Amino acid sequence: MTAFFILIALLIALINIYDGFKIKKCFGKHRKWYFFVGLPLHIVFVGIFCAMFFTRGSDFSGVFKDVLNVLGFGFITASFYMFLLFLLFGVLRFIFDKLKFDGILRDVLSKIYFRGILVVIISVLAVVYGVYNASDIVIKDYDVLISKEKITGNIKDLNVVMFSDTHIGTTIRENEIDEIVEKVNALNPDVIFLCGDIFDEGTSQYLKEYASKAFSEFQSKFGVYYITGNHEYYSGDVNNSIKFIQDAGIIVLKDEYKLVDDSFYVVGRMDMEVRREEGIERKEVSEILDGVNKDLPIILLDHRPIGIGKSKENGVDLQLSGHTHAGQIFPINLLSSLSNDLNYGYLRDDDFNIIVTSGCGTWGVPIRIGSDTEIVNIKLKITE
Fold it and tell me: Which of 181, 227, 234 is nearest to 203 (CA)?
């Protein structure tokens, strides 16, 4: 993990050196002013980004910490977009030069580019939008049909609400926690699922306690269920996070299942990170489901949407996952799609269904571009 962060730090440094070189050109004939205006601002934002880490995971809260997070990560995100856009315009210029293309299109692009000022403006506006979008919690609706040869349970319709990846402490704080509880309860759920990464390595004890008290206000007919994600293990004390969840009256599932109202099963898997952090092998789906009556609907909670073929093979009717954040920031979603069986949304394969949520929060960066911060509401219908 340390090597990973060192690599990221070096990458950020290289991107900022490149951006600084390009931004200097924005000053045109007055480039010397870059050293009096642009460079000092650059240094200030780098300082803010560094200072931000001194408050992560601490009980220090309030507006000042939020401002540090937004400015620090906003600076890094804007730098990332400036790098991509400067590179794009550079590639276009190279192609035009090779083709000796001096037509109207090149003149128009040159005016639009305006010494690179357009790149800076677009990048800043993207960050402003991303900060707003990250805290704008929306409801994502799905209709899912489960077919069984014979309905033996008491339930034919189930109103399911699930969310994951709140990463409390980044974008989701006191006000947003209360908003989540209010919005979930307003959906009048029959059952509620929390599919991992509710807390992470940056969540303070104060916010864990606050969330625990707020989550105790969830209202549902058949209870609230929780599974761990990978970040609960990164915190160094997964049992601490689990305790706050249990204090809220939420049922924690660790490679086990619960039969609900003699009508459907809720199956919860530990995240695969348990192997690296605690030296424990999580059970295979087939082992967990041993003894389950597969004539009843089986809902599987698994934080990561990886190896979903095993879920289908073992008779799971509906799998609910998170983890991917749907990439969180474009174009990272393109890479996220390569490392997961399903990056986002709903997939039906014969009688197997899976829904992957983009999450109800953000990790690390309090910014979301190209995806939504969401709570998922599933209208589940069971038919013969």
Answer: 234
Whether 176 contacts 134, CB under 8 Å: no
Q: DSSP letters along 82-98, please? A: HHHHHHHHHHHHHHHHH
Q: Where are the domains of the chain?
A: 2-133, 138-383
Q: What are phi and psi of 27, to 5 degrees?
A: -80, -5
Write down the pLDDT at residue 15.
74
pTM summary value:
0.85
**Predicted local confidence at residue 5, as pLDDT:** 60
Query: What is the amino acid identity at position 249?
Result: G
Q: What pLDDT does 240 receive?
A: 93
The answer to whether 238 touches 205, Cβ cutoff 8 Å, is: no
Sheet with 373-383, strands from edge to edge, namely 137-147, 373-383, 157-163, 191-195, 224-227, 251-252
239 within 8 A of 204, measured Cβ to Cβ: no
Can you give the pLDDT at residue 109?
63
**Helices H / strands E in the chain, number of each:** 13, 12
d(CA 16, CA 60): 29
Contacts (Cβ under 8 Å, ≥6 apart) of 329: 77, 130, 365, 367, 368, 369, 370
| Tokens encoding 87 | 């590179």
Judge contact between 20 and 132, C-beta under 8 A.
no
3-state DSSP assignment of residue 217: coil
User: 134-158 burial by CB neighbour count: b if 16+ within 10 A, else e?
Assistant: bbebeebebebebebeebebebeeb
Is residue 234 within a helix (H) or strand (E), and if so which, with residue range? helix 230-234
For the chain, which residues score pLDDT lower than 50? 57
The pLDDT score that the predictor gives to residue 349 is: 93
Q: What confidence score (pLDDT) does residue 3 get?
A: 67
Cα torsion through 131, 135, 141, 146, rounded to 10:
100
Q: Which CATH class is domain 138-383?
A: alpha beta
